[in-house]
Amino acid sequence: MGARVLVEGVSKRYGGDPSTPRTEALHEVSFELLPGSFTALLGPSGCGKSTLLNLVGALDKPTSGRILVDGLDIVSRSEPERDTYRRRTAATIFQFFNLLSTMTVVENVSLPLLLDGVPPRRADDAARQTLTEVGLDEKLTAFPYQLSGGQMQRVAIARALVVNPALLLADEPTGNLDSRTGNQVLDLIEELVSARGLTVVMATHSEAAAARATRVLHLLDGRLVAAS
Amino acid sequence: MTLYWALFSGLVIRPARRDRLRFLLTIAGIAIGVATVAAIRLANASVLSSFSSTVDLVAGRATLTILADGPGIPEDVLGRIAWLERIGAATAPAVSEMAAVAGPAGEVVEVLGIDPMSDAAVRPYVLERVEEGHGPGVSGEETLATLFSLFQKDTLLLPAPLSARLKAGPGDTVRLVAQGQERSFRVAGVLEPSGPARAASGAIVFADIATVQEAFGKTGRIDRIDIVTPEGTSLADLTRLQEEIASSLPAGISAGRPERRTETVDRMVRAFRVNLTALGLIALLVGVSFVYNTLSISVLRRRTDIGTFRALGASRGQVFLTFLAEGAFLGVTGGALGIVLGVALARLALAMVGGTVTDFYSPAARTELTIDPSILGFAFLTGVAASVFSSLAPALEAAAVPPAAAMRHGSVEALRRKGTVPLGLAGAASFVLAFLATLPGPVNGLPVFGFLSVFLSVAGSSLLAPAAVTTAARLLEAVARRVLGPVARIARANLSGSLSRTSVAVAALAMGIGMLVSVAVMVGSFRDTVILWIDQTLAADLFVTPASGRSNVSFGKLPQEFVDRVASLPSVAGWDAFLGFSATRDGVPFTVGSGRLDFIASQGNLPLVSGGDPRTLATTVRQKREVLVSEPYAVKFGVKTGDVIAVPGPRGDVTVRVGGVYVDYSNDRGTVLFDREMFCELFELDGAVSVAILLKPGLTPEEGIRKLREAFGEHFAVRIRTNSALRADALRLFDRTFAVTYALELVAITVAVLGVFNTLLALVIERRREIALLRVLGASERRVKEAVVFEAGVIGALGAGMGAATGAVMSFVLIHVINKQSFGWTIATHVPWLFLTAATLVVFVTTLLASWHPARLAAGVEPASALREE
């Protein structure tokens, strides 16, 4: 079951001290995401897409505003609660895959479960099952450097989905892939998401990728300028 | 901006600025290693230089010096070389002794007995003040007549600084302990601190030769004859003259360059010096492992930049040179800092090593630090060379980076992982070679192959480190799956994923701990062996030696009158007296000593190397007029029971048969032990260096001392120690001698722990993105911290385990090869378990503590910003 996300008047400013000029990455952004929806954040580089994803993913805190996920304000939560939120509710995939280079494929995927206290055997079983779902059951003991870009992103997707999150945050997931592989990755996301009913937010600067979403939010210079 | 500057600035200086703490730590690591090497060599050179300057100053203008291999030169030798005067050469006989100024805190002075008639031609004395009525109080080089007029019986000349210290000017009295008795000398004049008055750091007094011979019981004997050949004598003429003089002298007395005495002392301290230098080099080795690690990490982190430089046209050679220059830069900076630190450390080391060496070899010398630029240069260049050498591998790796920097981090480590098996095999081979290196004997008296064996063991352990880390990581994985959860899995992945760095940290720690273990086992074994030996040999209740002021070792001797009176005391049940002299054989020094073999036959207090009964042997040796030799003597000269040896006597060599070899840890020079009666007869000596007294049953040592004091009153200036006091003194001296080795261990361990800190810090900095990712995946700050601390724990445990194993091998080599070949002692291995367990635990805990800052740094990684950096 997907999460309901409510973003209310969120702003994010950086700097302002004597050494760095003040920049406003996000300004009074508000929107709501319904459970099971697939939303694209579309805009050019530097428009605030990744910042917004970081805030919804509890990787960072807004300067002002509220973010409610299933009615809970994640901004005001304590750090351990935000850790738990990242472990169980919001999973993220990145443009550069961000796999742990020192761990094998199956270890990368089972790690979030281990972090959540799942016994190792169960964690590994779950990881194998998810990797089979993404078509990587033959690469379980490979290291990331032995994989292609598309394979790495599939591992990242498996790692995100293994915890059965309610919210999937994808930051330019196809930005580092050729168009054919990118499309395959988007197909996979769509397929898995529809099967699990996840809420998905995808940041992209590609109109074509955004067209896969059911809803597109246009960002420009940190402001939400249109929704379609 | 030149291309090289652009490369160096872009790939070395700027990254180093960003990573200041790590670079400073690396420089500190090299600096500590260089400082240790510099300090040890400076301290030793200073001791030797103070001795050699004494030799030079006493020799004055002499071009040749006649010395005896045995107990002094008979005076009639002077008549045999009287012909030298006819060719215009001047000869000056002298007697040299050591004496304590009376009083318990009295300083030790060298006493040089000279003949004023002839001495002014050899040694330039400059009088500052003289007693009234002796000359005009001249200054400047004194005439023979004035010098002669000053010297009367029991008068002496003092250098001005000593005169000030003793508060004794012309006409005042100075009391010296001679032959165990306080004796008054009148100060006839004060010398300016120049020429011979500067010898023994100014702790020297001059008296008439007859006065010194009489006061110190050396009538009829002299210690040296200095010869000044006519000006313009060529080297060839000098050699010819030396041969002619030799033909005029009896066996065992020879003429040579004055500095050969320094060479003898150099030989005596050489083993000590070489051993310490080798320990210092291990500290440096630990230090340079820093360089490898730092550079290796640098190359890894800067792969993209290196690739970019390569894409822009930089050649492989240029990249290689840039990283080699970084190694040189670290070496030069660390080396420069190291020599500054080394001079400071040398002062400290001098107090420790210098004290021991001067006590043994030259108690009057007050060693001052001599800063020898060639030693500083050596230490500096060793640091730079080692640093450049350890940067070779990372530099080659940097040069291999393809222009597009297409290879990923993981693949680099994968390449390195492939080297694990060949490196492990090389490590095993290194241990085999280390074993083989224990088989050959010493080279020129030095355990060269023993040192090679230690270095091969260290190398073997380092080469095995990657295999050990990989194996430990695998074992950990098995445990991780069941017990330790995600923290262990993260740490395990990091360990094997960063194999090249973690294994260097493990190797460095193993080196430090190996050194700790080996030296602790060696010193512990030695100490226990010595304690056992003291228990076996100190059979008497009291030990009497001449008063020796504030010096820790005894010198001088007690007169025969004292020995006779002790023997007749009713409170004495038995006694032994040691008497001996220093001798040389082909320039190698040893001791010719004597004791009462009948005392040994009754007490059995002379353990034998063969383990037989000393009572029976002592009786047989005495009856057959044979000698016993100490184990160091037997090893040094390759002598065994039944061999016939020659000992230099006053009238040529004395040949005797060796009846047995006894255990002796009191010195490494080696001793030939005669029965007292035979010794006094052969060498025309009497008195004793020390007297051991067995009290009548029922008398306590304190009562014994009281009775001795009552019997002798103030007549003798002696030091009487009880059995337990002598035992405590011996162990104190032992501990002080080895204090410096403990200090070196501490240095190596500190450097190694710093190395672990440095590595963990580097790994945390390098893995910022991965740590951020863990945080994204929901790992709490605590989990991240735990993973780093856990990793440190594994590095610490592996280092401790491998260190203990290497240490065990090294201690075997130290005890049975290096020590045996250097000093000739057999030591029974004893493992100080408690100390080792405690020390290893301390190192392990310190390693964990060293991980605290990197762990905090890791926990503080901001996930969003760290990922944005990508």
What does the model show?
The complex is a heterodimer of chains A (228) and B (870). Chain A has 228 residues and is of the alpha/beta class. Chain A has a domain at 1-12 and 22-89 and 195-228: Rossmann fold (3-Layer(aba) Sandwich), CATH 3.40.50.300. Helix content of chain A is 34%, strand content 26%. In chain A, a hairpin with a 2-residue loop joins strand 4 (64-69) and strand 5. Chain B is α+β, with helices and mostly antiparallel strands and 870 residues long. Chain B has four domains: 1-60 and 260-407, no CATH class; 61-257, no CATH class; 419-537 and 732-870, no CATH class; 559-715, no CATH class. Chain B has 29 helices and 21 strands. In chain B, a hairpin with a 2-residue loop joins strand 14 and strand 15 (588-595). In chain B, helix 10 (260-301) packs parallel to helix 13 and helix 17 (499-537) packs antiparallel against helix 27 (833-850). Chain B is elongated and about 95 Å long. The two termini of chain B are 29 Å apart. In chain B, 53% of the residues are buried. Classes of the chains: A alpha/beta (228), B alpha+beta (870). The A-B interface holds A 50, 54, 57, 59-60, 79-80, 83-88, 92, 94, 96, 98, 100-103, 107, 111-112, 114-117, 120-121, 124, 143-145, 159 and B 408-411, 413-414, 480-482, 485-486, 489-490, 493-494, 496-498, 769-770, 773-781, 783, 862-864, 867-868, 870.
